[in-house]
Amino acid sequence: MTPTTPAALAGKIADLVVDRPGRRVRMALDGAPPTRPEELATEAAAQLRARGRDVLVVAAADFLRPASVRLEYGHTDVDMFLDGWLDERALCREVLAPAAPDGSGRVLPRLWNAELDRAYRDDYRTLADDGVVLLSGSLLLGRGLPLDLSVHLRMGPAALARRTAEAERWTLPAFERYDRERDPAGEADLLVLADHPDRPAVRD
Fold first, then answer.
1. Which keywords does UniProt give here (predicted)?
2. Hey, what's the torsion of the CAs at 12, 139, 63, 29, to 10 degrees?
């Protein structure tokens, strides 16, 4: 593992995309909330735009299922949190399939406002032929999502428990199962050790 900085890490992510010129790229930035995948996606997007790429940052949290489905078995059901909260079909239909190299490019940035439990009603966005979708969120790998690249921000169990808010500690068993059952560290194209998000390290 090589120590780095958040800015340099964002640059390394941008390099992975730039190494695939002339085509659209769909990349997942996957990590538990304390690893701050959304912040990394925003920084990587800025660096990619500076290199002339059209970029859309998509939050997986904006593609959750309605509360009536998501919370069918209660607000703290670990199985549903791991496998049932994300609306994978909608995410593929509205983002990942049209953002494919041979897709239409017509992408919906956000679908469902989980806080208000209603649709965002966003307009569709047309992604350039060499555009980039950066999908940020948690528990994204090992689902069979059509992705071209993936980054996993790994936080060890002790650090994750320490940095997770009390109200969200019920999710910890889901992240433990995710590591054990889906091996996101092994699946990712780039593995980042993020026990200290301000001082990440990258697997060479």
1. Kinase, Transferase
2. 0
Asked whether residue 61 is domain-assigned, the answer is yes
Stated as kind and residue range, the H or E segment containing 153 is strand 149-154
Q: Is the pLDDT of residue 204 over 90?
A: no
3-class secondary-structure state, position 86 = strand
Nearest to 149 by CA among 159, 157, 141: 141
Judge if pTM exceeds 0.85.
yes
Residue 59 structural domain = 2-193
- What's the average model confidence in pLDDT over 84-95? 98
Average model confidence (pLDDT) across the chain: 97
For residue 94, the 8-state DSSP code is I
Residue 89's domain is classified under what CATH number?
A: 3.40.50.300
167 half-sphere exposure, CB direction, 13 A CA radius: 1
Alpha carbon distance 135, 60 (integer Å)? 6
